[in-house]
Amino acid sequence: MSNEGQRAGRNNQTRSVSSLVARSLHPDGHAVQVRLELSYWEGLDEICRREDLTPDELCADVQERMNQQSRRGAQPGVSLANALRVFVVGYFRQAATERGHARAGHGQGDPFVSTPFDSLSVASDA
């Protein structure tokens, strides 16, 4: 891929950093609107593909676990969207390995490489 193509891909990622995308899910047979950033939807779709689950099945499991925590007095009032964000990050953190970090270019003093923030630069105060 050319540098221009790489930059275009990164720019597309940065545009979706704060944009919420709404999807209708049916975790308990009833439609629920969930709004997540595109990168979370992509992560959720990847998890579903890897685990051979539908988004509805996965969301039902997350929702059931939220309900169990709530009955125990932990995490009252957590939205399904927030629970899905925590789940997606936790899933991929468990899958992260030193080899994977090295392939992604992490640990070289630039934590933003290979992330949606890669092409964004912060003006220095100098």
TrEMBL record:
Residues 21-91 form the Ribbon-helix-helix domain. Residues 1-24, 98-126 are annotated as: Disordered. Pfam families: RHH_4. Gene3D superfamilies: protein bp1543. Residues 1-21, 116-126 have a biased composition (Polar residues). InterPro entries: RHH_dom, RHH_sf. This is Ribbon-helix-helix domain-containing protein.
